[in-house]
Amino acid sequence: MRTIWKGALTFGLVNVPVKVYSATEDHDVPLHQVHEKDGGRIRYQRTCEVCGEIVAYADIDRAYVDDGQTVVLTKDDLAALPSEKSREIDVVEFVPSDQVDLLTLDKPYYLEPDSKSPKSYVLLRKTLEATDRTAIVRFTLRQKTRLAALRVRGKVLVLQTLLWADEVREAAFPALDEDVRISKKELELSASLVESYSADFEPESFVDEYQKELRTLIDAKIDAGDTFDVAETFGETEKAAEGGEVIDLMEALRASVARSKEERAKNAG
Fold it and tell me: With left for phi above 0 and alpha for psi between -120 and 50, is residue 39 left, alpha or beta?
């Protein structure tokens, strides 16, 4: 895993140096769009709807539309905002773990001790376990202030960003306000059905069948020779129109294809 952030957990006078890693990764097979006729790669260009010019990413600003008016925010405008540069994860408070609404949990990160002695890290972990508390923290990642929950998962501290309160929609459904009568017999039968499906949750026993079958389909097409040569479908990288961007991916693609073939050959053997 690659470190994405380094800093320190702080609460009171306690300072816990840590490294931050993304705790999840996408397992979806990467797909891109091609021309059905010849397999040629479809590319997109950033075009200005006013003058029709192709615009380089460096010349693009951000904007907000308000009541029919477009408010352009330049890079200098955004740079002038009081963005936080702190390398600290500040504990705001410790709350009962059951008070953290699962609906607000967002992106998870692993925290690794970043000091010669992990004693302060282990102390914090054991304290959270013993008190059944979750630490609510503030920190800055990619120039954005974030609220997060710090909790324990096995032997590791997990930092999980939280949605802000105004980002969670209210579930206002009229049907839920109706007075619905449930008989004792219906409740007993429903509970019996739940019991018949009861089991311990083992996440590793569940497989993404779509991605598995997609990978099988791709391998079958490769084995059958139902493919295009990458160099032919991508073509030589042409000089972009003035003001555009050119991204040469050929070498990376060739290397990826070669590695994929080597892995398949190794697995087959």
Answer: left
Q: Tell the burial category of 218 from Cβ atoms under 10 Å away from its Cβ (0-12, 13-18, 19+).
A: middle
Please state the rounded mean pLDDT for residues 87-110.
93
Tokens 């096995």 belong to 154
Contacts 24+ apart (CB under 8 A), 243-247: 243/53, 243/54, 243/55, 243/56, 243/59, 244/45, 244/46, 244/54, 244/55, 244/56, 245/56, 245/57
Give the C-alpha separation, 9 to 252, whole Å. 38
Residue 265 and residue 228: Cα distance in Å, rounded? 20
Q: Average of pLDDT values for 200-224?
A: 87
Cα(109)–Cα(2) distance, integer angstroms: 12
Owner of token pair 């999840």:
24
Q: Provide the residue type at 51 as one letter.
A: C
Q: What is the pTM of this model?
A: 0.69
Give the tens place of pLDDT for each residue, 84-96. 567 889 999 999 9
Asked whether the predicted pLDDT for residue 250 surpasses 60, the reply is no
Residue 51 structure tokens: 């003058």
CA angle 54, 56, 59 (to 5 degrees): 115
Length, in residues, of the chain: 269
How does 152-177 read in b/e, with b if 16+ C-beta sit within 10 Å? beeeebbbbbbeeeeeeeeeeeeeee
